[in-house]
Amino acid sequence: MNRVLILGAGTAGTMAANHLRGALDESWSITVVDRDDEHHYQPGYLFIPFWMKPERVKKSRRSMLHAGIEFVEAGVSLIHRERREVELIGGRLLAYDWLIIASGTRPDPSLVEGMADGALWRDRVHEFYTLEGSVALKKALADFTGGRILVHISEMPIKCPVAPLEFAFLVEDHFRKKGIRHKVDITYVTPLDGAFTKPVASKELGGLLRDRSIRLAADFAVERIDNDSQRLVSYDGRELPFDLLVTVPPNVGQQFIMDSGLGNDAGFVPVDKHTLRALDDDRIFVLGDASDIPTSKAGSVAHFATEEFIDNFLAAIEDRPLPNAFDGHANCFVESGRGQALLLDFNYETEPLLGTFPVPYAGPLRLLKPTRLNHLGKLAFEQIYWQMLLPGRPIPISSHMTMAGKHKPKE
Ligand SMILES: Cc1cc2nc3c(=O)[nH]c(=O)nc-3n(C[C@H](O)[C@H](O)[C@H](O)COP(=O)(O)OP(=O)(O)OC[C@H]3O[C@@H](n4cnc5c(N)ncnc54)[C@H](O)[C@@H]3O)c2cc1C
């Protein structure tokens, strides 16, 4: 029996397991490990503070895995690469021939002084990158009657780098609808030099922040949260007072990656960005947010990369050259409030551009412009996620980015 072991039954691990079960014969066992049996639709965390019921984002991980895949509910504590074994919390060992790491990233609020260890944590300092956090934030928003809100990114990279921007737009819309927008001062605080990483998207999204009277505090490298004076403090001495701080804590790789000597400083596994094979070990592939590939950490990236990975894996096990090269394709909706959203489509080489998607001129989706249809696309993504992506069903969007419909701004 040949053994594939997958660490993590989130977006990437579940898709990979289901695809591989269809591609490998019965001489292969596929085992997936995760610490619990609750798969979360993480994009839903953004909506929970505003309208989505928390129960709606959860499904059993086991129920998302096809027949013929073994699910082991346990935490991973260490990878013993030399013996090709994974040690689980409690000491059980799982042997593998091929290992797929799909353990994602996690927010770690202990990395900023005064965040998780501060008196204001989950009181006036909130996050929405966990289910618990987004539920607590819902209550904080309901109780908020006016004052200064900071929407803040601690450091990059984070998963779904547009989510804090989306939160800023949605919270602005929320207080507008409540009729108290004039009592709420909103600032978007980022370590980047603008609203987003790349010039075209940064210009469009920065313009939208201005339109909504949301201030931008750029190049803000957070040093600490001063809980006594309710201020966010940067290394260069700037201090931003707040009544409500909605932060994205630093996102790091999992502890077992660091303990196994596989990760970089932030705990992400260095891989070949085109094949997703670990640089230090031919028997390991890394899918989803757990790797160090230089594109967004996003479910769409996990999806496109996994599609490219399957044929590479089938080649690797037969010792053939790997046929596919992942191009870093990411496709992200950005909620902009007012029942609208923008769409970003980019890869390693091409920054997000203006245009239409997926069909040139016809769209129907618009790139980098807020439209109602983009928003409906974002909402439809939830069902596409559960019904198409996780089970490994094909969707009519190429895993390679195309320039069709995109146009570069004039120099
Ligand atoms: C607020 C928010 C909004 C988002 N919106 C979007 C969006 O609109 N579009 C989009 O494309 N993406 C979005 N994302 C990002 C998307 O959810 C992630 O990029 C995607 O889930 C990554 O998949 P993954 O499999 O790498 O990691 P995950 O889905 O996080 O799965 C990792 C799994 O590994 C398990 N694991 C970790 N460590 C261990 C261990 N030691 N032992 C056992 N199991 C372990 C975890 O329990 C988890 O199930 C959003 C994320 C957030 C937080």
Textual characterization of the structure:
This is NAD(P)/FAD-dependent oxidoreductase. Residues 3-293 form the FAD/NAD(P)-binding domain. It comes from Flaviflexus salsibiostraticola. Pfam families: Pyr_redox_2. The chain is an alpha/beta fold and 411 residues long. The protein folds into 3 domains: 2-42 and 57-107 and 252-317, 3-Layer(bba) Sandwich (FAD/NAD(P)-binding domain); 109-250, FAD/NAD(P)-binding domain (3-Layer(bba) Sandwich), CATH 3.50.50; 330-407, no CATH class. It is built from 8 helices and 25 strands. The strands form 8 sheets. Strands 5-2-1-9-20 form a 5-stranded parallel beta sheet, covered by helices on one side. A 5-stranded parallel beta sheet has the order 11-18-12-13-14. Helix 1 (11-23) runs parallel beside helix 7. The radius of gyration is 21 Å and the shape is globular. It starts with a strand and ends with a strand. The chain binds flavin-adenine dinucleotide. Residues 8-13, 33-35, 42-43, 45-46, 75-76, 102-104, 128-129, 159-160, 163, 254, 256, 288-290, 297-300, 302, 332-333 line the site of flavin-adenine dinucleotide. Flavin-adenine dinucleotide binds next to helix 1, strand 2, helix 7 and strand 21.
